[in-house]
Design brief:
The chain is of the alpha/beta class. About 40% of the residues lie in helices and about 10% in strands. The chain is built from six helices and four strands.
Length: about 170
């Protein structure tokens, strides 16, 4: 049977590499599914890594020293991982070109969506627009605000399109 356990180690903390293995060892797990770039050394525990994006490994110039070390650790540990799951063929190819993990231990599983996340009805859309005071046809950015998202370029592109094309939906 599957068990779910909330751990005390905060993600991405400086202590993670020391405290997480101790917490996990006490759980006596058969397998650990790592949804992030960190797990205890794979030789100590069977681990499956889910790889969504290799941006932090490919271009680590936006990271501080501690974060750079954190993400590069993935490449060092992958060859010993039980398995890796990528969300696209492109991510799989990139992962195989960057690491020494055996290709037969890397699969592609496309992200799914729970049926509860159905398409919005016109009534749903009208309610959301009214609640959030959104204009018809607005442009919405959803994501973290960080340099790699290049938000200034997006806004600049919007302004340029507005000059060249004419009126656009509001931001």
């Amino acid at each position: 049977p599957l068990r779910e356990k909330t751990l005390l180690t905060p993600p991405h903390s400086r202590l993670e590499s020391m405290t997480l293995p101790l917490e996990l060892r006490a759980q006596r797990l058969d397998l650990l599914h790592c949804m992030d770039f960190f797990a205890p050394h794979p030789r100590a525990l069977k681990a499956i890594y889910s790889i969504h994006d290799l941006f932090f490994v490919r271009d680590n110039t936006l990271l501080d020293t501690a974060s750079r070390r954190h993400y590069l650790r993935l490449l060092q540990r992958l060859p010993d991982a039980t398995h890796a799951v990528c969300i696209s063929e492109d991510t799989r190819r990139e992962l195989l070109s960057m690491s020494d993990i055996a290709p037969e231990r890397v699969s592609v599983i496309y992200p799914g969506c729970d049926p509860i996340h159905r398409s919005a009805t016109p009534s749903d859309i009208a309610t959301i627009r009214k609640t959030l005071s959104l204009a018809v046809g607005c442009v919405l950015f959803v994501g973290t605000i960080e340099p790699r998202k290049n938000i200034p370029n997006m806004v600049e592109g919007y302004a340029l399109a507005h000059q060249q094309i004419g009126p656009l939906p509001p931001l």
